[in-house]
Design brief:
The protein is an alpha+beta fold. It is built from two helices and five strands; from the N terminus they run ββαβββα. The longest helix is centred in the C-terminal third of the chain and has 17 residues.
Length: about 110
């Protein structure tokens, strides 16, 4: 994906096409008041599809969300940004290996 990504703060969910032919789903749960509201977002269908689902503010839906496969920590280093990705499952480890291969081919 080569396009800029915006936070889905007001729409709650944004979909982005991936080169592999599927989509990445970006959820912003900041405005979710109760975990039950996640039912309206179609989270169960996303989970069953095996899609890549990125969640901001996961603590707002903690009881309804499965454990995270991947943890992403964003920070600033001077004027630059840094991202630290940590695999928490075999699935996430495979995603990180694929990401590493893509990154190496773009250098």
């Amino acid at each position: 994906m080569d396009e800029r990504v915006k936070s889905p703060t007001y729409s709650l969910v944004e979909s982005y096409p991936l080169r592999a032919g599927n989509n990445a789903w970006h959820l912003d749960l900041y405005r979710i008041a109760a975990a039950e509201e996640l039912d309206y977002l179609g989270l169960e269908a996303l989970r069953e599809s095996g899609a890549l689902v990125l969640v901001e503010w996961p603590e707002h839906g903690a009881r309804a969300l499965p454990p995270a496969d991947l943890h992403l920590h964003l920070s600033h280093v001077g004027e630059a940004r840094a991202a630290l990705l940590s695999a928490r499952s075999a699935r996430a480890h495979a995603w990180l290996q694929a990401l590493a291969r893509i990154t190496k081919t773009r250098r």
